[in-house]
Write a structure and sequence with these properties.
Elements: H1 3-68, H2 71-82, H3 88-106, E1 112-119, E2 125-128, H4 142-147, E3 152-159, E4 164-174, E5 180-188, H5 190-198, E6 208-213, H6 237-243, E7 248-253, E8 259-267, E9 272-279, H7 280-283, H8 285-331, H9 346-417, H10 424-453, E10 461-463, H11 465-476, H12 479-482, E11 486-489, E12 495-497, H13 499-516, E13 524-531, E14 535-542, H14 574-584, E15 589-593, E16 599-606
Parallel strand pairs: 11-13
Antiparallel strand pairs: 1-2, 1-5, 3-4, 4-5, 6-9, 7-8, 8-9, 10-12, 13-14, 14-16, 15-16
Amino acid sequence: MKLRARLTIFFILLSVVPVLIVGYIAYYSGRQTIEQVEINHLVSTNLMKSSELHRWIESNKRSIAELAQRPLIVEYSGILATYEAISPSYRNAHGNIVQAHLLPRVKLKGGFLELSVISSRSGIVLASSDEMQEGKNRSTQPYLIEGKEHTYVQGVYYSLPLQQPALTISTPILDRQGNTVAVLAGLLDLSELSSIMSAQSGLSKTEDTYLVNRSNFFVTEPRFGANYALRKNIRTEGVEAGLAGKDGVGFYANYRAVAVIGAYKWLPEYNMCLITEVDQAEAYTPVYALASAIGSIVLILVLIVLAAGFLLARNITGSLSRLVEGTAEIGRGNLDNRVGTESGDEIGELSRAFDRMAAELKQTTVRRDELEQHVHERTAQLEAANKEMEAFTYSVSHDLRAPLRAIDGYTRILLEDYRPALDDEGKRVCDVISDSTHKMGDLIDDLLSLSRMGRADLNPVNINMQDMAAVVFEGLVATGSRKRINFSVDTLPPASGDPALIRQVWVNLISNAIKFSAKRKRPVIKVYAEVKETEIVYSLEDNGVGFDMQYAPKLFNVFQRLHSARDFEGNGVGLAIVQRIIQRHGGRVWAEGEIDKGATFYFTLPAGGE
């Protein structure tokens, strides 16, 4: 495929794909926003409707409770509950309570369809605004049973005596001693409830709000149905979720088998579910318009990008052809040739860069031999420096040891030949001098070891770390002292390393642990490990004197000590040797501790040992 064709395709992909992606993101974001607006509206409608329903019921609860507390209602109810129906007092009380108190309340708009005074003992309707209900037995009705104790709302149900949907509020009628003499029950006008549910916001043509009871029956008439209340069963995804006690939003088919967005809300105090829905076809109308607009914009941009990409590819390939011809000549060895493209774009810059490269390449060819000679000389100098360092190290070792041996020898002569002439202080000074020379010798040995760590060749083999740690401990502790130290080694994974150097690491760390935990009544030293993805972490923990973590960075420096030499022997080089060995093996070393609570030293080796 020609370069021009490839560039054209490349520019199309480079330009069109982002445009398509941006267009899709814009559409998706817009769709999400529109969906969220519709969802927020449905949820808000549910909240508003449930609030209006609650206010309506609470208002009627207050109304019937206030009516039940009227002195004449209490007096007449007491007479009806205790007198015979044929007595003049009964007839007088019945006529007054119906005409003066029950019927006026029934005639109020949006209130009660029927009000009844029911005997709390027998459950018989003593007086009612609907004389057809008088004498009926209501003893099994929940509103009578609950109404003896408190004001109670019996959710919408189908009343067989009334042959219609009913929602009843009941409240006790109490005498002066607080005893229930009767129950006042009111049958609410459900047309008012339907009016609350059917009231539309005007923002949607298909918005539909209705109530469903526990038995999956409509409580109020849906917008697109007639005679559904307590006659038609409904089992949609939204209704099932609402009756399960959930509040939320779903996308499902409604009772008309139409795809809708529905918000459902459970009303536990009324044992009903409130549903508000809108057809998805209407809800997504703005989404379809948005998709059309974005599609038109994307198409225009794609056409523009196609034309621009073709022109740009043609311009680039023309300049590249001239550049290829010039660089080919340089590639054949003619370093004096120059491409000479004068255009001011990036290809022009590239051609001039080739010209500069040709000139520099010519100079580089001349300087290459000089550079090789320089590298050879520097290599020789470095080898000589290493030999001088080895000679210096040997010289330092020899020159320092000779006077130390002399000092130690003269001190022994004093102690052996002139002991009777020395007082106690003289003998103590001689002992101090001898001990100091030995410590200086040990320090020289450690410094030489530290120096050799950076130069010695590594001879890595597979090491049984568990056996090595145990053997080192056995070699460091006298037989009689082993029982006093609680030393334990977990199963340690093997590692690859120089056995002599790794053994020195265990020697230095275990000897430190023994030294710094020696003053404990029961010294405890634990060795364990953790295998990670690329390394193995070996840990040595003791219950010794520990250290302050703010000084942790100094632990592995030469001559750095965190404890007095009078309390614990040492020259401050052992941990520096440990760090040098571990670093040469490609690992890390660090420590954690707390004063008087022990310390833990960690070192890592690359994973992979068998």
